[in-house]
Write a structure and sequence with these properties.
With 157 residues, the chain is α/β, with parallel strands linked by helices. The radius of gyration is 18 Å and the shape is globular. It has helices at 8-11, 28-38, 51-60, 77-86, 102-110, 125-156, and strands at residues 16-17, 21-24, 45-48, 61-62, 65-69, 93-97, 115-118. Helix content is 48%, strand content 17%. It has one domain: Response regulator (Rossmann fold).
């Protein structure tokens, strides 16, 4: 019996992981401000004016993390967040809003947001959020690597 083996990558056509940060906000000034604060720190930034454009891009490449405005035309940031989580995309997502709405904040966190940032915010706040996300990711990777090494040593021994 002859079998042709196909690699997982050859049959899986999902989105490619990107090293960039996606900013989704209908306010051009906010997109520019976020890019101006993140880019000098070495973080490549791609900006989107609405959730639909962002979701199309996220179908092809997954960002390292997302800054997502809640109040946007057509599709809210909360709806976009829920769509991403339904797609099993678990990158850090920081929701932003000028409104201080406790029920929305609670719903955002329950829906999988990593943080809720009130506008206007200090221009250094996004960099701090990204650094915290990088640190958390590094810790998870170290734990995963340690667990895999321990399993490997146990299996060999």
């Amino acid at each position: 019996m002859h079998q042709t083996l196909t690699s997982w990558g050859a049959i899986h056509q999902g989105p490619k992981l990107a090293s960039e940060i996606f900013v989704v906000d209908d306010d051009e000034n906010m997109r520019d401000m976020l890019e101006a604060s993140l880019a000098p720190e070495g973080y490549p930034v791609s900006s989107f004016a609405d959730g639909d454009a962002f979701l199309r891009a996220a179908s092809a490449r997954l960002p390292f993390c997302v800054f997502l405005d809640i109040v946007m035309p057509r599709r809210s940031g909360l709806e976009v967040l829920k769509e991403l989580r339904a797609r099993q995309n678990w990158m850090p997502i920081f929701l932003m809003s000028a409104r201080h709405d406790n029920p929305t904040m609670v719903e955002a966190m329950r829906s999988g947001a990593d943080d809720y940032i009130r506008k206007p915010f200090d221009r250094h706040a996004p960099v701090r959020r990204v650094r915290a996300a990088v640190e958390a990711w590094s810790c998870r990777q170290q734990k995963t690597s340690s667990a895999a090494l321990q399993r490997s040593e146990t299996e060999e021994g």
